[in-house]
């Protein structure tokens, strides 16, 4: 990573403040960093780079107009140059392995317009298939977007199940047994590891729900929209101009191939004491299995273990959204699926709401749209019946503004933080 290794700890501190705040002046940098004006000025001069070589610059400056003619010098605002570097995220999910890319300002880079669906594969059923898919994704990026691949600074992975994010090991996944004790080096393979080590790329790993929560926390809002409603500004949505959320206590309910929950408490991903996983998978309570077996659309077997309920409900939601799958069901039968699924999920969420009193529940995953449109009323009613009313006064529900790539986006963000951590040590 040419140039980045030349930054001092103070340079990195100033750069991170500018990155977090957007556009800042020197006085705010002094306040946030807790250093003198001389120190801030020295770092800014270093980050602005050589005037004759823009490749050495990390930030840019903009002189603002004076408010009054006789005022002092015009204020100058500093902002990060987004394309100084990129971070790659790869999500190894139950159904698909996806790639997402963010620039240095956490803006999501649109790859589909150039390469259509080449950055998404069906997840393989064994270790060698996953390694091959990851290699294909990286080779495709280098071939299609060499200007980005040359500025790649880090790679993050999102894996199913219990993940040790400190040691970067996928410990165990009930749904994907071959991920057991799988290191990030094994996922990448020898040739990719040689490339990564030669180019000093940072590496990160976390589980899928926590990566989704990271993406929601840091790029889940639209920067141009301060609305607290569920409506979305379509122009902003298409521009993907995402920015950080204001909320600090968030529950992310992921409706994909399975159902899982991740927690954001006081602006941080909750991981517990083990650092293996901060997500709650298969968290359903008081399930009446005899009733479940009588509902059309649920392919339930006597041998299915308790934790399969989330898989059944999530897949039923996906099937309902597929016109060719449940087309033979009557309206009454579909209503039973809506009512049952919404009630069970709402009942389970009520435990989290009562304990944590979150500000926001975000519905994520590739089934989020179908889930929100059809199940939200039952969930809200079910939570309301089991939650102290003060816990619901400021609780909001939102559909994610991110795509199905949200886990990969979160993994890319983790690669950024891994880089910052390594350069600050």
Weakly predicted, low-confidence segments? 113-117, 224-239
Distance between the termini: 16 Å
Named at the architecture level, the CATH assignment of the largest domain is: 2-Layer Sandwich
CATH class descriptor of the largest domain? Alpha Beta
Q: What's the helical proportion of residues?
A: 40-55%
Counting helices, strands and paired strands, the structural category is alpha+beta
- Envelope shape: globular
Total E-strand runs: 18
Main pleated-sheet profile: 6 strands, mixed
Q: How is the CATH topology of the largest domain named?
A: Nucleotidyltransferase, domain 5
Your description of this structure?
This protein is 41% helix and 19% strand. With 425 residues, the protein is an alpha+beta fold. It folds into 3 domains: 4-80, Arc Repressor Mutant, subunit A, CATH 1.10.10.10; 85-213 and 407-424, ATPase, nucleotide binding domain (Nucleotidyltransferase, domain 5); 222-401, ATPase, nucleotide binding domain (Nucleotidyltransferase, domain 5, 2-Layer Sandwich), CATH 3.30.420. The strands form 5 sheets. Strands 13, 14, 15, 16, 17 and 18 form a 6-stranded mixed beta sheet that branches. Strands 5-4-3-6-10 form a 5-stranded mixed beta sheet. Helix 13 links the parallel strand 17 (360-364) and strand 18. The chain is globular and about 75 Å long. The protein starts with 8 loop residues before the first helix and ends with a helix.
